[in-house]
Amino acid sequence: TDNSDESTTEDTSNEQDNTEQENTDEESEAEEEQQSDSSDGTYTIGISLPAATHGWMGAMVQNTEAEAQKHDNIEYSLVTADDPAQQSSDIDDLITQGVDAIVMLPLESAALTPTAEKIAEAGIPLINVDRGLETENFRTYIGGDNYGIGWVDGQYLVEGLIERNGEPAGKVVEISGVPSTVTDLRSQGFRDYIADYPDIEIVASQPGDFTAEASLAAMENILLANDEIDAVFSQDDDMTVGIVQAIKDAQREEEMFIVSSGGMKEIYNMMIEGTQPEVTVSVTYTPKMGAIGVNLATKILAGETLDGFQGELIPHNIVLDATPITPENVEDYFDPDANY
Amino acid sequence: MSNMQTSPEAKVEERSSSNNKFFIWLQYFWANYSVIFAFIILFILASIASEHFLTPLNLTNMLRQISVIGILAIGMTFVILIGGIDLSVGSVLALTGTVVMASQVDFGASIFTAILFGLFAGLLVGLVNGLVITYGKIAAFITTLAMMTIARSAALYYADAGAISGLNSDYTIIGNEYLFGLPIPVYVFIIVVVISFILLEKTAFGRHIYAVGGNSRAAHLSAVPITRVTIAAYMICGLTAAIGAVIETSRLNSVSTSSSGSMYELDAIAAVIIGGTRLTGGQGKIIGTVFGILILAILSNIMNLMNISPYIQGAVKGAIILVAVLLQKRS
Amino acid sequence: MSNMQTSPEAKVEERSSSNNKFFIWLQYFWANYSVIFAFIILFILASIASEHFLTPLNLTNMLRQISVIGILAIGMTFVILIGGIDLSVGSVLALTGTVVMASQVDFGASIFTAILFGLFAGLLVGLVNGLVITYGKIAAFITTLAMMTIARSAALYYADAGAISGLNSDYTIIGNEYLFGLPIPVYVFIIVVVISFILLEKTAFGRHIYAVGGNSRAAHLSAVPITRVTIAAYMICGLTAAIGAVIETSRLNSVSTSSSGSMYELDAIAAVIIGGTRLTGGQGKIIGTVFGILILAILSNIMNLMNISPYIQGAVKGAIILVAVLLQKRS
Amino acid sequence: MILEMKGIIKKFGNVVAINEVDFQLNEGEVHALVGENGAGKSTLMKIIAGVYQPDSGEIFVQGKKAAISSPSESQKLGISIIHQELNLIPYLTVSENIFLGREPKNLGFVDYKKMKRNTLELIKQFDLDLNPKALVKDLSIGEQQVVEILKALSLKPDILIMDEPTAVLTEKETSKLFELMQLLKKRNVSIIYISHRLPELKIICDKFTVLRDGKWVKTAEIQDFTEHDIANLMVGRELEDMYPSVPANIGKEILRVEGLTQSGHFNNINFSLKQGEILGFSGLIGAGRSELANAIFGGDPADEGEVYWKGKKIKYKSPIKAVQDGFGFATEDRKETGLILDMSIANNITLPSLKKYKRAGFVNKKSEYRDIQQQIKDLNIKLYNMYQAVKNLSGGNQQKVVLAKWLVADTEIFFFDEPTRGIDVGAKREIYHLISNLAKEGKGVIVISSELPELLGICNRILVMYNGEINGEFSHEEASEQVLMRKATGL
Ligand SMILES: Nc1ncnc2c1ncn2[C@@H]1O[C@H](COP(=O)(O)OP(=O)(O)OP(=O)(O)O)[C@@H](O)[C@H]1O
Ligand SMILES: Nc1ncnc2c1ncn2[C@@H]1O[C@H](COP(=O)(O)OP(=O)(O)OP(=O)(O)O)[C@@H](O)[C@H]1O
Ligand SMILES: [Mg+2]
Ligand SMILES: [Mg+2]
Questions:
Q1: What is the distance between the alpha carbons of residues C48 and D177, in angstroms, rounded to a whole number?
Q2: I need a labelling partner for D172 at 20 to 30 A (CA). Which of A163, B166, C52, D186 fits?
Q3: Degrees (nearest 5) of the Cα angle D134, D136, D137?
């Protein structure tokens, strides 16, 4: 597919030098602790995440913590926030504790940019996860691509419509998350992709608040208002559970299919069992991103490298693939013990 | 009326022209049930706004959608009638839902036992709220705010902020099946309403609820067991949260410890107040709450049907709630 | 004292055994300021629990962190003192923050003008709240609940639920720079506290606030302009939300229309109540609120420093708030 | 002896409200408990009623030692109390209030039929027209008091405590109450009766006990003492000239009311008031006097009619303008409308007149303090600290705070609604003289009262209201209890 080129981008800039230079600057206390810690090989990593207000984020928090626990030489400090200001405060506290590295999933890109600058100022390597920042002043970015998710969902939607109706045309329903940047980016990616297909009409776009219950109610009502629906774009797998239930209740399973996002176990299960309505794709958006961030942080602190990047340092930019999981490849990804 | 001291009614009749008993009745009715008029107006507007609104399927769907918050709002009515408030119901729903699902999934309890555990957990949380408020003498607002974070925390901690999905599909019957054309949750809601109505209107306990809310000192001096009445009100509220949890978890056969029930408390309180119950206690009716919840239901239903932008749904809902309450006040 | 009717002072001396003037003072102090003791205990515990707690950097950070919610809580104190409540402050913070940022970014206003617009917007929202509550006679809880959704909606709608980032880095000075070793937001907080203290304790307006909250009918008959006082209280609350918005947006040089200020109202109200202000109005002090907010600040600071699991932070916070309030009540 | 109290002590913080009091009540006797405001009468009764626990001392009921830890405990011992303050639930009906906490039940449900029947029976005893289904909030204060009395009687108590039951009752209702008390006495019920209306005591009481400053002073048979003796025992000194001379220096008209109407409350009211004149309003409960005063004052504007203030037409929409023009209104219900109970005494007193103390936007505490001290001294308000909450004062002293409030506000025309309700003789006398002095200084005074002797004693003129209309006018010389009562009952 055409997003293969943006799947795993690497940017091996010389950021490491920057960090080291700053380390030798006036930054005193944090610096000293870092040195003393690194000498005996144990590090403290600060982890700042949004509060677990829906399933994906819950899994994110848990995976990240589990990863940190796995490393014997790592102590960690995990904080979660409801809003950007609190997250910024949390990070103040982490800097105060003198952590050696920070893994952060910013609630808002713009809002946490000054905070990132401050982390850099304190000479602490920042591993930024999922949402981008408006600065390059961080050690590594592991990207989840929200716009890409919408975009890939758009692709599968068009494919599905062609398969069912013979042409890229049909009536589409969008169930969106809690109004936020994430929601907005996914909508935007989706809309931008289908913009080339004028016969695809979005007949309803309603909030499902990232919960199954709200999506269930919204979808029930939309099903009533629209006698003809060809497909549903669900911005989140948690919500898809509710959407599927609503379609089943209305006994319109045959009529429409769902393109979804998230990579949640329950949705994989549906694909494996082939239940109706059909979920043709769940674009993974792995809640393991935070865990990957922690893992990379340990490597950065220990001065290790990645396999395949022989002799090189950890890249500055890593964008994870927005992998489409479909009934065809789902078996490869399904893990019955996963928490999401 | 032969007596010299004229009673208030006598006075009215004397002064107003003639056979306006109907007018007096209307006034009484309006004072107590004006929310019904607000409901009717909204209902008519909704019917005009969307052709889909008046379809039987939509109406039954709507009823099912409100049943959970409706049940919570009924419990909340008791608490607000005694002059209290319970901000914890949403979190308690998540916690009791977790108890119900975990009992089935992690401890292999039967559906029946799991539900009993859930209801018991709800009663227990209510008991704790009530004890802290009465014996600890801490404001209900702050007690239940603390309980809101505590109950949510407990659920998150147990399930690592994840969801618990049920294995037994029999459990989904409660939330999904129909009986004589109406969804089962609607029956549960109706049963809760009827029992609450009887409790409030026909029993001494109901009188005591109004007495504690109307003037707790006076109630105390009249030997009303205000502590027990207060605790009972919070326990009822906890119980309704648990009943709501059973319906909600049964509907999707899962509970999400992070998002289930979040912000439900605000909708429940809004329904009670729209229904005409006074926030300071002592005045209000179950029927009012029922119509309050119906107003909220129509609102979100019609906004979905008309595909109103999610960004402005909040504004529309807020504005219409204000108008509904304003309409009522013209008495 | 030659008079037969004993004067008040004489009575005291007659009845109390001896020189327990100190004891009486202590009692008065305890009744009004017991929150300070709760704070001191928590402070000592925190100092023991984490070596990082007592570092100057941590303390100044903590002060900066609380300044926004602190300012909101001060405004909330006025509203709660008159027996009202304002659930909209969090959303109003987001809305006024949007006004400030959009004025700069989309309309090219200077920083100064943008801030003025923001403060004006805050006052305006407060005015609307006040007018609806007084003239519309709608319960404050429901009015501000509606305003909460309306203000948030307006911000979301304007920015498509996104964030607005500032372009002028001068603006970040307010939120980020230090003056004589203390962050600027802390000075703003202190100024707000001092002005509010003077307003409440030294002016007729302050007396009127307490009178309206204590007994609004009696206040009305004592020529207190209760409508104006009520509206003013909500305007002050809106204004403090806007001041908080300026600090917060300046700190991050951006506003997030979806998440800025979310749930701030609950923290602000909790701070006021922990500070000993009675939720039904008429009783409370600014100083109490300041210590209430300090208690909340220490709590979240120490939990971060001690790396307590986020899942159970809620439970710990809830439990400690209850204990803090309980401690106060032992008077 | 049915009730005996020995060595009772009760302190509130540093205030010793009851100081080693002994008290005995015999079976079937009506025992008056008298004393100045703040003497501790209500506190002593609340101890019997289980509201307060004594700090030390013993209580024996029917010879057995009793620990009365709650109101229900007290009820079980056959004790029933009518509190000084009304204790009713506004949104419950008359019958629900009467049987609150003791609802008759049938299969677990409230037996409303039985409740109504029992209520009607009680109401009949009182010969009243009261709808058992009326909500208490819609009743006048007097009617509410009647409900309180019915509630106490419905318990069929052995010991009945009445704390100033007649304070809000009219003469007619009062005499009904006395008949009832005689009946109860025949049934061997023992009654403790608290009242500041000394003449009443002679009619119905057998014995009396005087408290002063929390201490027991005397217990004796009532026929051995005159009213005058009892009053002296209460205050501990000679008491003379209860009523001052009627003011003589009448000036020009300051207030004229023409055709004032407020539907449901009063109708076509015409009267005028001159400087230096005291005008009394007499009438039964619900005659509309309070509403009339409230309407002129702007508390709840009238529907029709005109009011002229010094020849200028006025129409106050709120009390603010009225107070600026020099109106002052001491309302009849000090707890509901007169005072901010949680506020300090000092702040209550200056609440309407804060403008006077404004200096550069701030309240000038010094001059404020001076004025407050002055009032506390002039009115003899018994307190412990002027910054204590007014709710901790006794009823009578609270009333004085209400008066002080309007005195500080430089009022030119005073509306006193039941100014001596619940006030002891000593304080009453002080207030009569005070009112008279106000008139003599050239102020206009309107006194609304249900106590005929005080209207007869101090007023230049008395208007009688009946059913919302003025039904008669009498000068000081013409007026007598008989003619006023006739007009008040609509004859
Ligand atoms: N709850 C309380 N807290 C503090 N002091 C109180 C309280 N109740 C009463 N007092 C004080 O106790 C004393 C006795 O008051 P009490 O009400 O018994 O007087 P009383 O004789 O009934 O007066 P009155 O005739 O005015 O009703 C007064 O000094 C009063 O201020
Ligand atoms: N809140 C109320 N709602 C309805 N009716 C009321 C209310 N308050 C008073 N009334 C009625 O208004 C009428 C006038 O009452 P008001 O209290 O003015 O009489 P009054 O002459 O002042 O008697 P009192 O001797 O009790 O002071 C009465 O019929 C009373 O029942
Ligand atoms: Mg008394
Ligand atoms: Mg009256």
A1: 69
A2: D186
A3: 115
What's chain A's length in residues?
Answer: 340
The residue assigned the tokens 């009443």 is D200
Please name the member of B142, B279, B318 whose beta carbon is closest to the beta carbon of C150.
B318
CATH number of D253-488, picked from 3.50.50.60, 3.30.870.10, 3.40.50.300, 3.20.20.70: 3.40.50.300
Q: Does B165 contact chain D (CB < 8 Å)? A: no
Give the H/E segment covering residue A259. Answer: strand A257-262
Residue D77 backbone dihedrals phi, psi, to 5 degrees? -80, 5
Is C4 in CB contact (< 8 Å) with chain D? Answer: yes
Domain ranges of chain D: 3-235, 253-488
Contact between D383 and D373 (Cβ < 8 Å): no
Domain D3-235 classification at class level: alpha beta
Which positions ≥6 away from C112 have C-beta within 8 Å? Answer: none
Question: Is 70 exceeded by the pLDDT of residue B54?
Answer: yes
CB contact at 8 A, D49 and D74: yes
DSSP β-bridge partners for residue A284: A262
Alpha carbon distance, N-terminus to C-terminus of chain D: 47
Annotate C292-310 with DSSP letters as a single string: HHHHHHHHHHHHHHTT--H
Contacting residues of B for A250, CB less than 8 Å apart: 57
Query: What are the C-alpha distances in Å from B306 to residues B210, B301, C251?
Result: 41, 9, 40
Token pair of C125 as six digits: 């929202």
CA dihedral B199, B200, B205, B207 (to 10 degrees): -150
Query: What beta strand segments (E) does A105-193 contain?
Result: 126-130, 140-143, 170-176
CA distance linking residue B19 with residue A21, whole number of Å: 95
Using a 6 Å cutoff on CB, does residue D444 contact ligand 1?
A: no
| CA dihedral of A80, A82, A83, A84, whole degrees rounded to 10 | 10
Give contacts of B82 with chain D, Cβ < 8 Å: none
Report the separation in Å between the CA atom of C271 and the middle of ligand 2, taken as the mean of its atom positions: 43
> Where does residue D245 rank: exposed (0-12), middle (13-18), buried (19+ CB within 10 A)?
exposed
pLDDT class for A146, splitting at 50, 70, 90? confident
- Contact between C223 and D319 using a beta-carbon 8 Å cutoff: yes
> What's at B316, amino acid-wise?
V
Task: Give the ipTM of the model, two decimals please.
Answer: 0.79
CB burial readout A188-206, b (16+ within 10 A) else e: bbbbebbeebeebeebbbb
| Structure tokens given for D300 | 């709840």
Maximum distance among all alpha carbons in chain A? 68
| Helical (H) or strand (E) element with C182 | strand C182-183
A123/A251 Cα distance (integer angstroms) = 59
> B216 to chain D nearest CA, in Å?
8
d(CA D424, ligand 4 centre) in Å: 20
The pLDDT tens digits for C281-326 are 898 999 999 999 999 889 888 887 887 877 788 888 888 888 877 7
Low-confidence ranges of chain D (pLDDT < 70): 14, 237-240, 490-491
Q: Check if D300 has its Cβ closer than 6 Å to any atom of ligand 2.
A: no
Q: Is the pLDDT of residue A259 over 90?
A: yes
Q: Which domains, ranges and CATH numbers included, belong to chain B? A: 34-330 (1.10.3470)
* C-alpha span between B108 and A67 (Å, rounded): 30
Q: Which residues pair with D258 in a beta bridge?
A: D306
Predicted confidence (pLDDT) per residue in B224-281, tens digit: 899 999 999 999 999 999 999 999 999 888 888 888 888 899 899 989 988 888 888 8
Probe target for ligand 2 pocket from D265, D416, D466, D467, with the most ligand atoms within 8 Å of CB: D265
